[in-house]
Specification:
The protein is α+β, with helices and mostly antiparallel strands. Helix content is 26%, strand content 27%. It has a seven-stranded antiparallel β-sheet, with no helix packed on it. The longest helix has 24 residues. The chain binds FE2/S2 (inorganic) cluster and fe (iii) ion (FE). The site of FE2/S2 (inorganic) cluster (FES) has 8 residues, from loops.
């Protein structure tokens, strides 16, 4: 285990400073590959989902040719947001602005602009919805707002072998949970990065995976984490410790006796279980508020079994999540105090120190 010797937690400003939060949105979230969902979330042609990236409204659509495209959800006329609603189907494959009815097809082309024909030099071709980069990998959809994003493959490199071993491209959604957490997004990353709190905060989790039975595969950079050993007689993380069905096919004996936890900077966590993949997706909303979407992906053979019941895993993680959010919100409350000051990290918090190092490097702070 790498020591966190000398490392201290982040100072108060990192959790309460609005200006710093705005800089994070611009320098981190608007430049990184962010997980936006599963490709199956846009199952049919004309499916759409709206979201915010780096605090900016965007829309992702699947056009008739089957291609997923991402656009800034901002009208080229006078800037109104064009598509409303979180997700759904765009009738006739059009995005029509509710303000003056400029309308765009799902490739972003402006195809209707009432009363503009008489405007000198106006050419519809000059006013496409502005696109951003979308890529798919392992059944996931990722988006990046920067003009020249880095290779997505390099952003996922550290977890690539796990994604392959778990056959994640084939896995499908078995359950979904959603939370509003009144805490800064970094507190959620830091909390996920250590099990020092497990004996006090998660007595049930600590029985399934005793807190000192962990190893760090990746201790530096944008992806951090490693395995925790399942206790004897425990097959997975669930209320009963039993599997929801069969394990993921092809896993080796170590993978069947471990849960692999990784944070992927800056927007999600992967938790590889013997029988499912749990994903926490974080959307920072304000300096002190984060939306979390939790998805459980299972093997299709397990999902199609008439007796499939994910409730053991879902209830276990719902309880554990709520325990985690409570302590994250507790630290956020502490950060309201001018007495809040960086404290020394234990050697069980070396990944917290590694997250903070990477964050400081990216933000140059
Ligand atoms: Fe969209 Fe005018 S702002 S049509
Ligand atoms: Fe926890």
């Amino acid at each position: 285990m790498r020591s966190a010797a000398g490392a201290h937690s982040l100072g108060r400003e990192f959790f309460v400073d609005q200006e710093l939060f705005a800089r994070e949105q611009a320098n981190i979230f608007a430049r990184s590959w962010l997980l936006l969902g599963r490709s199956s979330d846009w199952e049919r042609a004309n499916s759409f989902a709206t979201m915010e990236i780096g605090g900016q409204p965007v829309v992702v659509v699947r056009s008739a040719d089957g291609i997923l495209r991402g656009f800034h959800n901002v009208c080229r006329h006078r800037g109104a947001t064009v598509v409303d609603g979180e997700k759904g189907c765009l009738e006739k494959g059009l995005m029509t602005c509710p303000y003056h009815a400029w309308s765009y097809d799902l490739t972003g082309q402006l195809i209707g602009a009432p009363n503009m024909a008489s405007v000198e030099n106006f050419q519809r071709a000059n006013y496409r919805l502005q696109p951003f980069h979308i890529q798919t990998a392992h059944g996931f959809v990722f988006g990046n707002l920067s003009d020249q994003p880095p290779e997505l493959a390099s952003a996922l490199k550290t977890v690539e072998s796990h994604l392959k071993d778990w056959g994640v491209a084939e896995l499908a959604l078995g359950a979904r949970l959603e939370y509003q957490v009144r805490a800064n997004w970094k507190l959620l990353f830091e909390n996920y990065s250590e099990c020092y709190h497990c004996p006090t905060v998660h007595p049930a989790l600590n029985r399934l995976t005793p807190y000192k039975g962990s190893d760090n595969e990746s201790q530096d950079g944008p992806i951090l984490g490693g395995p925790m050993n399942l206790a004897d007689g425990i097959a997975t993380m669930s209320t009963t410790g039993k599997l929801a069905g069969c394990p993921i096919p092809g896993l080796d004996s170590k993978q069947l006796r471990s849960v692999y936890y990784f944070t992927v900077f800056p927007s999600f966590f992967f938790s590889f279980h013997p029988d499912y993949l749990l994903i926490h997706r974080l959307e920072p909303q304000r300096v002190d508020a984060t939306r979390v979407i939790c998805e459980f992906l299972f093997h299709p053979a397990v999902l199609s079994d008439a007796s499939f019941d994910p409730s053991g895993a879902v209830e276990f993680w719902d309880m554990t999540n709520r325990q985690d959010w409570e302590v994250c919100e507790r630290v956020q409350s502490g950060a309201r105090s001018t007495a809040f000051a960086p404290g020394p990290l234990s050697n069980l918090e070396s990944i917290v120190a590694a997250f903070d190092r990477h964050y400081r490097k990216v933000m140059k702070v």
